[in-house]
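A protein record pairs a chain with a discrete description of its three-dimensional fold. The following entry can be read in just this way:
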Amino acid sequence: MKKELIDMLCQKSFKFSQEPIYKLVSGRMSQFYVNCKPVTLCARGIFLAGHLIFEAIKDDDVTAVGGLTFGADPLAVAAAFASELKGKPINAFSIRKTRKDHGIVRWIEGDIQPGERVAIIDDVATTGGSTIKAIERARSEGLDVIKAVVLVDRQEGGLENIGQHVSNVFSIVTRDELVQHWQSIQGD
């Protein structure tokens, strides 16, 4: 499954240039660009990512998986769906970018209660800022964040930064794996 996901990411989501032409959220320019949405919002990509994320969290005794909207949303739903198929249900949740200011004022949406053990996920990590924000917001709502999983690690310090907030950090795919596969398919 991982090899197929890497191939899909290279075909639909990954861009590489010898010169740093891609502007990142931080404003910094990069040789690499990864937009996972074309993969995480297509049927096969959801299937692959969901199963791989479930495999990464299934032994961590978590009751739910989620992260900052919008990057984490399809991944959380896919992992929850895969977990049910595998007979070990793990719910999905979503963390808002801005706190709901009406009704029950909160950061998180989903069938989840304070005290639950959860995994935070994200589609891409560069500095880890979005994932760290999700960890902080989940904890502010009383959740016990015990793991963070990133679909693509750009290998620019994000996992190390996330590791300062939760000790168990895992990536499904690395930038090096994408570059290696991208280069192999460019030679065709």
